Amino acid sequence: MPIRQIVVLPVALALIAFAAPGTAVAESGTSDGATYTVTTKAVDLEGGWHATVGQLAGGDDAVASAFNDAAVASGKTMGGALSDDGVIRDDATFESKPVVSFRPTAISQVLTGIYYHHGAAHPMDYVTTVVIDSRTARPITLDELFTDRQAGLNRLSEQTKVIFPTTLGGTVPMGDEPGNAPLAKNFHNWIPTAAGMEIHFEDYQFAHGLPVITVPWSQLTDLLAPDMAVLAH
User: Fold this and answer.
1) For the purposes of burial, counting CB atoms within 10 Å of the CB of 86, is it exposed (0-12), middle (13-18) or buried (19 or more)?
2) Which domains does the chain have, with CATH numbers?
């Protein structure tokens, strides 16, 4: 199995295990005036693995269909990551968990996965996200979220340097690291919440595990596209 590169940070972040918040899977929810029921579906992945993803029923058919297709694609993306890592199939397990959440104008999924080869020092963690605009049945990407994507990435990079150390009780802002550089690949896993933009970092983006931070909407509202400003309310 290939060894992922570990970035050693100056604030002693390396080799600290993180876990995503233990949010319960919603059984139903309402967005843009429509109510949906949440179920799950097993998706076959390359290599013989399976991923469990969220699915919607009821509500707006176009929105439910867009979400369901995106959730399946998200699971297959995770399967591709397993293949890219060259994980060993024998004597190993892989489990995934979808968490679906509802906002007034968006429906989101955070899909986390854990691969473990028996006898290994620790598991390998995976995460992918989906955000669907419940007004238009279209995905909300970083391009749609910000008026100027690069300006948005610059702000997310700045906020990560400030917020991330506080998750460990530190007070010194992070320096420039590969994981906090203003690049789309560093911030493409996110969902909107009432508190702000919840960012899910990938395994070894900073250290082993799946760290999560929330950038307050107050730090982003001046950069949000006009039709995305409603996410902050």
Assistant:
1) exposed
2) 24-140 (3.30.565.40), 142-233 (3.90.640)
